[in-house]
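User: Predict the structure for this protein chain, please.
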Amino acid sequence: MEREKEDCINVLQEVLGPYGYSSTLTWALRFFLRNPYESLIITDEHGRVTFMDRGSEKFFGLAPGGAMGRKMIEFIPHSDIPKTLETGYPLIGSVLPIKGARKISSVYPLIKKGEVIGAIGRVIFHSFEELNRISRKLARLEREVQTLRKRQQDKHLALYTFNDILGESKALADTIELAKKIGMIDTDVLIVGESGTGKELFSQAIHNYVSPERPFVRVNCPAIPFELAESELFGYEKGAFSGANTSGKKGKFELAHNGSIYLDEVVSLPLAIQAKLLRVLQEREIEKLGGTKVKKVKFRVIAASNANLRKALADGRFREDLYFRLAKATITIPPLRERKEDIPIYIDYFLKAINRQFGTRFKRVSDAALSCLTDYIWPGNVRELINMLEQTVLKKWEGEEIPLASLPKELVEASSGKSHSLSKEYKKGINETEKTLILNALKETNGIKRSAASLLGISRSSLYNKLRNMELD
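Assistant: Here is the predicted structure, written as structure tokens:
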């Protein structure tokens, strides 16, 4: 046992060599191995003890070296070491019963050339009651934070501004510039973009650009049950239906008075509700379910939809008159595949966030991995990128660089050209969607191209180019 202690000291001295050698270092290393406040236990890949500090030996009533070769679970039956040896993941801050008392335990894997060769276990000998007091204090602080967040949500405030929108591509910069101009005027807005492009982020930024103190009410249209859609949006009077609140309820539009209401995936609203919504937009007044009086309300509608809105129009699932009422100003968020220069920025930002979440230390992706990520078409856009990074980090777990081999296999295959047919079909669908948008705008404006360009939120020259490319001129 003493020989193994000296081996540990020699290894640590070698690691700390650049800092010099001194008697202070020697005593620090001895304290580390004989720390009376925390245990130090090392096992091999089978969970057998290869080192146990003297304090732990005394705690378990063992003679010096008495733990060597014995299974760790003999001393701590509920030890996390077997789990760490099996998964290769650290388990930090577990509360374990040890000799009739609760102790805090942390276990870390020892990995060599990608293989788990053992584990290091630490147990804090401090009073669990003291640690529990600290834990209660942290829990109280967490509750206070959650309460503040809930109050913020109850006040219907938007959180994000244009400063929170990441990216340096020209396509994104042009979109932000247009959104800022729209944010300056009091008009309804339609935000069009594929899933995962950040439509709600833009909606909050538009709202906050001039009047962040005003209410911002979110409505997740697909999540509203069909039978409750009217009462949720427009409210109801007391006794309007069985089970209704005895004092009635304000609807989302009333809550958004003097502010903004964000209708996410507005295409999912039932046609009957779309008809009533159209009237609300035209008259700026609401009539509650079960009521007989109308009430004037002032609000800005920020509606959002993915590319399926064009198909919904063609299929009759979304009213044309409602669409043109909403689309006074249209913002189209470019998909990630059209602004690939933003991908390294997103990778850097979200890797840091994921590191904080999982306790990892990744700083970058390899050049080969970055090339693969840049070539991928990203049908799920930024949301898919975040999901991919989380999967990869959990798979790789340790290190500073993510190699190509750690990326999902299907992503690598798609980027290498095996999914070109999918990419071609995907782009064809996008082109058809754009064509439908332009034709509808021209129809609404009686063929006046300047007015159609304004309705679409693009320049007149851009509209002319698109018409020529689509052979619509």
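The CA atoms of residues 52 and 105 lie 15 Å apart.
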